[in-house]
Design a protein that fits this description.
By secondary structure, this protein is mainly α. It is built from four helices and no strands.
Length: 98
């Protein structure tokens, strides 16, 4: 008698399928991720343009939830910049602690 086969998890493609519907998939990724040294008005303009794409996205909420859950450190995800996500996570931690 052999060893029982371990149970492997099923496909997790459902967890990522939202990305196939993302509005950003039709754009250059550089719109959503700042180049090294980008500052000031150029940064704000790029982030605003990225957020405008996000505002039209049918999967904005799962994208945002993903970025917050994994603490995505770079780029505009779910209509939020790195700084906005960090701020939101700090507020959530503070609310839980209170």
């Amino acid at each position: 008698m052999g060893h029982p086969k371990p149970k492997l998890p099923g496909s997790v493609s459902w967890a990522w399928s939202w990305q196939e519907l993302a509005a950003c998939a039709r754009f250059d990724p550089r719109l959503f991720f700042h180049p090294t040294g980008e500052r000031g008005e150029g940064s704000r303009a790029r982030e605003l343009a990225a957020k405008q794409v996000c505002a039209t996205c049918p999967v904005l909420e799962p994208c945002r939830a993903y970025a917050l859950a994994v603490r995505e450190p770079y780029g505009v995800w779910g209509g939020l910049t790195e700084e906005e996500r960090a701020h939101l996570l700090r507020r959530r931690r503070a609310a839980r602690a209170a």
